[in-house]
Design a protein that fits this description.
single chain, about 240 residues, alpha/beta, seven-stranded mixed β-sheet
């Protein structure tokens, strides 16, 4: 993954690999938002190593929108994405869909063990992604969103309002800017207290980024202070596995 262009930090990449390898659910790994393939390489490598089948990567690879990474004059990330998979030797482990997630969803009929959302960072876009695929989550699946602690409205609101606020999910937390929760529709209420404690801290960030606002001046300093109070250290792998098993 280090050799691929992208925006995951190393601790985020390690956590994503942990979630892919150890999610205690049967099904497919679905990546929404691939950019140039950094997370795709990591997920595909894990899937190939542990016999998890092909991962599914969906991204239109179009010119950047307001919340997309800067392509620095390129019209598309498609060629770089394909080159990344080829150089990493994981092409055979990836089922690629050059499309929007909303185009893939109508024909989707597979259970999902890991849903990795790193696509449209607007609130409408991020909420659409969870709404489209939530019914396909296998019991015990992990949902992970990137840039929850960045200044985009979509990931933080979906994490707080759709995952932490729901008894359909159990253990939850953050690693770097990845917010994650385990789908536990039968017993998620057992983790309500810990989710509510995280909810109280994380929701304070939402007013700073709602409606596309970017915090500036004193507001930016206050945002950074409140963000620092949200626990987001890398988990101990063994403890994390025990928590979700």
């Amino acid at each position: 993954m280090r050799g691929a262009a992208g925006f995951l930090t190393e601790r985020e990449a390690r956590f994503l690999a942990l979630a892919a390898a150890c999610a205690p659910a049967q099904g497919t790994i679905l990546e929404i938002g691939s950019f140039k393939g950094k997370s795709t390489v990591g997920l595909a490598s894990i899937a190939a190593r542990y016999g998890l089948g092909k991962i599914v990567a969906v991204d239109p690879h179009t010119a950047p929108s307001v919340t997309d990474p800067d392509l620095q004059g390129q019209a598309s990330s498609w060629d770089d994405f394909r080159a990344t998979l080829r150089q990493a030797g994981v092409e055979a482990a990836v089922e690629v869909h050059r499309a929007f997630s909303r185009d893939l969803a109508p024909g989707w009929d597979r259970p999902i063990r890991l849903l990795w959302i790193d696509g449209d960072h607007t609130y409408a876009g991020a909420k659409e992604d969870i709404d489209l695929f939530r019914r396909h989550l296998a019991d015990g699946a992990i949902v992970a969103l990137h840039d929850v602690l960045s200044t985009f409205e979509g990931p933080i609101r979906v994490f707080v309002e759709e995952l932490l606020a729901s008894d359909g999910f159990g253990p939850a937390g953050l690693c770097g800017s990845i917010g994650w929760a385990q789908y536990r529709p039968r017993d998620g209420r057992r983790w309500r207290a810990s989710r509510e404690a995280l909810h109280r801290r994380a929701r304070r960030l939402i007013p700073f980024v709602q409606r596309g606002r970017q915090p500036r001046g004193l507001a930016k300093l206050r945002y950074k202070l409140l963000r620092a109070l949200v626990p987001h250290a890398p988990p101990d792998p063994g403890s994390w596995v025990r928590a979700v098993s």
